[in-house]
Amino acid sequence: MASVLRSYDGEREGKLRPIEEYLPFVKRVAQRLARRLPSHIALEDLISAGVVGLLEAMSRYDSSRVTDFEKFAEFRVKGAILDDLRRRDLMARDARLESKNIESAVQELTKELSREPEEEELASRLDLSVPDLRKKLEKLTPVRVVSFTDVYPMNTPTEDDSPFEEYAKKQKLEQLAGAIGKLGERHQQVLQLYYQEDLTLKDIGYVLSVTESRVCQILSEATLRLRAILNPEGAKSDKKKRRARGGYNA
């Protein structure tokens, strides 16, 4: 890594500070993400992935168009870390299938009831008790990569975007905001505290006077409900696959 850094500095001499001076910045971005990830994921691995994003940002940076390099680079550093986490495939196959089943059940019930299903209704559709449903949701939360782009894939606006691309991304953000508005008050509150206020699960539990595990359950359920709202067509294909496997009856 050191040789890569030294050679890269030579290419960018006179335009940006030596890359080593930006490493604390990469570490800060990695630490913010690490707070929301399972403890077995090493911070050093996140930082290494972030350096890849930093190198990309340095290669694309144009000081005549953007004055704040760190603001410009943050999107690419964070994106590189998230891409690395996705490549590791944190969520096991069984967990992904479980997540899809719950998401599809939410979609189907929402369509049938013309409203969001209650927790008891969702549990009944899945042939589970409410406590068992909560246990499943809790297990799904810790392995989620923490980004709204995992709920609703979109690229973060950059200086290179065309007016059309910027408009398309604005439309997606508006749709995401509208979907959040359809969630229950508690789900909205947890999403706001987690994503906007950047609180840890433990802190959110303190604010809401619930256990950390209950916050995990609410966050996981809110994420699945958002996916169901934003991707209603996904339920149709998932439902066919589930029936072919002999899954629950809808």
Q: What separation lies between the terminal Cα atoms?
A: 54 Å
pLDDT averaged residue by residue: 77
Rg calc = 21 Å
- Ranges with pLDDT <50 over ≥5 residues? 1-14
Beta-strand content: under 5%
Q: Indicate the structural class.
A: mainly alpha
Could you characterize the architecture of this molecule?
Helix 5 (93-113) crosses helix 7. The protein is globular. By secondary structure, it is mainly alpha-helical. The protein has helices at residues 2-12, 23-34, 43-60, 69-88, 93-113, 119-125, 130-140, 148-151, 163-181, 185-196, 201-208, 212-230, 234-244. The chain contains 13 helices and no strands.
What characteristics describe this protein?
disordered N terminus, single chain, 13 helices
Set out the fold topology.
Blueprint: H1 2-12, H2 23-34, H3 43-60, H4 69-88, H5 93-113, H6 119-125, H7 130-140, H8 148-151, H9 163-181, H10 185-196, H11 201-208, H12 212-230, H13 234-244
Helix pairs in contact: 2-3, 2-4, 3-4, 5-7, 5-12, 5-13, 7-12, 10-12, 11-12
Task: Provide a short characterization of the protein structure.
With 250 residues, this protein is an all-alpha fold. The chain has helices at 2-12, 23-34, 43-60, 69-88, 93-113, 119-125, 130-140, 148-151, 163-181, 185-196, 201-208, 212-230, 234-244. The model is unreliable at 1-14 (pLDDT under 50).
